[in-house]
Amino acid sequence: MRPKKESAMIFKPQLFHGEAPTVAEENPTEATLEQRVADALASTQGTGAEGLRVVASGGEIFLFGTVSTRDEMDRAVEAALTVAGVEKVTVRMETDEAP
């Protein structure tokens, strides 16, 4: 009968392609989230971002201001929802269109 080999656990430093792993910001600050949404609005065609104000409260984004059309408002909401960390968009916008 063979004698039992004693085994030991060896822990190596965690590396990813030779670099220490980093964690992406899981809960961005409200200011960071506001800036990311503002950037998304500015880069979305057909959205007049210059007339909008973005306010974050947790994962909720509030959009304030005036846009030309209801379609423009819808595009602004869709753009805001594409940003990581945005859970909900509350619209406080007006349109130049007749009711």
From TrEMBL:
BON domain boundaries: 29-97
A Pfam family assignment: BON
Name listed for the protein in its UniProt record: BON domain-containing protein
Phylogenetic classification of the source organism: Bacteria, Pseudomonadati, Pseudomonadota, Alphaproteobacteria, Hyphomicrobiales
